[in-house]
UniProtKB/TrEMBL annotation:
The keyword Ribonucleoprotein does not apply. The lineage of its organism: Eukaryota, Viridiplantae, Streptophyta, Embryophyta, Tracheophyta. It holds the Pfam family LRR_RPS2. It comes from the Eukaryota. Keywords: Plant defense. This is Disease resistance protein At4g27190-like leucine-rich repeats domain-containing protein.
Amino acid sequence: MLKHEQFLRSLSSFLVYGCPLLTDSGVHLEAERATVWDVRLSAFKDSFKTSKQLLLSDIENYNLVPEANEDGLNGVTSLQLKHCADLECLVDTTATATKNGPTSAFTYLETLFITKMPRLEALCKGQPPQGFLKNLKHLFVKECYKLQVVDELLHNREKNQEHLLSNLQSLNLCDLPELRWIFKGSPHSFTFQSLKDVNINRCRNLKSLFSPSLIQNLVLLEQLGIHYCDELETLFADPEMMVK
């Protein structure tokens, strides 16, 4: 494998589209913007160390860390995932995926856009690495048909996770037919002092938005939009108090 320092020093972006037989790029491609569409991520192993904007579509991987990058993709600030039918999570720290695992992952990610991910259940399987999504500001989730509770997407029912989403400013959820609750876990696990904009569209089985115990954290909320949620019964209610 050639080292990128030898040439391509001015490369600022690269796009590879529709090359399903490509298995080895032959070089570490380092660029601030990277788009990989219908290509095996193994062809670009460790090629995203300097990428800040990453768009992945129609990839066959089950996770991004460690399959695509073992260092945790900590430099990425904007991540778009589309039409990744096999992707189950962003990071897998379970023993079946990696023995040592990354010490940190997606530490500086600010914007996360996810659409058409039928198998996605959690952003992290196993205990999240240090700093996981601690700087996330914008979350957009669309057409993830297995998703029932947003907080389960974030932490996969793992315990001992404090202060999730403390920097989240906008939350957009669209076309999630199985979504019943947004946040169903312990109110002590989430802080929303930065949340300003919430938009919910066509989540037909959604029952409630937030529990009353979380209202006190929504001090900066400026916009709340709810559209075509046929089963919505109340805006604020404890899931345990509502009839299933």
